[in-house]
Amino acid sequence: MANLTKNSERDLRVAIAGLGPIGKGAAEALDAGIDGFSLAAVSVQDPEKHHNWLGTLKKFPAILPVEALSDAADVVIECAPAKLLRSIVTPFVETGKTAIVLSAGALLENEDLIDIAKKNRGQIVVPTGALIGLDAVTAAAVGEIHSVRMVTRKPVRGLVGAPFLVENNIDIESIKEPMKVFEGTARDAAKGFPANLNVAVALSLAGIGPDRTVLEIWADPALTRNTHRIEVDADSARFSMAIEGIPSENPKTGRITALSVIALLRKQRAALRVGT
Predict the structure, then answer these.
(1) How many domains does the chain have?
(2) Which of 2, 41, 110, 254 might form a disulfide with 130, Cβ 3.0–4.6 angstroms?
(3) Any alpha helices (H) in 2-110, and if so which ranges?
């Protein structure tokens, strides 16, 4: 995380790409004050839609096209549609800057961005998001992890419209009981559920990779919260974790995801940092 603190003499300028629940939450926190950071710019597909809301902030940020963000900021928070990941992240990591990426699933289709970041001393940061225990998985990966399995259960409205369901003509809107709609690797899940399973990709990147991380996805009409259960078997420990996330105004995104980004920024200059 060195890039986020490399210049202690001034605040690092932050750009936010996308003003859904995550982007708005991060913008409000930055506007209220996070030590070492300031909100410099935002990029949205429909600026007029967000103009009034941005006017409620103490300091109105610049509204810029994606390609101009890297000229105005040191750090970008990417919380936009996955198809925009490359255009948002590339200019930052090419110039040795930091990209905080929420569309982790899209990284699997743009893995060369990691090499670009390494070559130019840039950094791609994937926040913990809606998943507990990434510290434990990261630590276990220093040794040998034998297997990682994740079972995700979501309310129906959080899965409707996912490409995998559409392509396979899987109708979940009228189900009365829990229905398993997918079982496979995290890589395949990221392709089939790009707006839903960034959490699984983050887990796979922390552990044994997207091709060995196994995932089940269930649609459950009785649920109002996104639930994830993870089981890890490693040479250092065997452990399981479970979380029930409360959805934000976007049913595909949990409230805790925005809070995870804020926590990530706050810990950079904190006198006490807890966690790996």
Answers:
(1) 2
(2) 254
(3) 21-32, 47-54, 69-72, 85-94, 104-107
The domain containing residue 182 runs over which residues?
A: 134-253
Whether 274 is in a domain gets the answer: no
Closest CA to 129 of 21, 270, 18: 21
CATH number reported for the structural domain that contains residue 116 in this entry:
3.40.50.720
Alpha carbon separation from 88 to 10, 16, 17, 213, 250 (Å, rounded): 24, 10, 7, 27, 22
Question: Helix count (H) and strand count (E) of the chain?
Answer: 11, 11
Considering the candidates 50, 51, 146, 228, report the single residue annotated as catalytic.
Answer: 228
- Asked whether residue 11 is domain-assigned, the answer is yes
Please tell me whether residues 117 and 163 are part of one structural domain: no
Tokens of 166: 């559409």
In a domain, 160, yes or no: yes
pLDDT digits (tens, 9 = 90+) for 79-136: 999 899 999 999 999 999 999 999 999 999 999 999 999 999 999 999 987 777 888 9
Terminal alpha carbon distance of the chain: 11
- Asked if residues 133 and 207 have their Cβ atoms less than 8 Å apart, the reply is no
Other C-beta atoms closer than 10 Å to the C-beta of 235 total 10
Q: Which two tokens stand for residue 185?
A: 């690797």
Query: pLDDT tens, 36-85?
Result: 999 999 999 999 999 999 999 999 999 999 999 999 999 999 999 989 99
How many other C-beta atoms are found inside a 10 Å radius of the C-beta of residue 9? 4
Closest CA to 93 of 107, 76, 106, 79: 76
Cα Rg of the chain, angstroms: 19
- Whether 146 sits among the annotated catalytic residues: the reply is no
Q: By the 8 A CB rule, do 232 and 240 touch?
A: yes
Do residues 239 and 139 lie in contact, with contact meaning Cβ atoms separated by under 8 Å? no
- Are residues 113 and 18 both part of a single domain? yes
Instruction: State whether 55 and 110 are in the same domain.
Output: yes
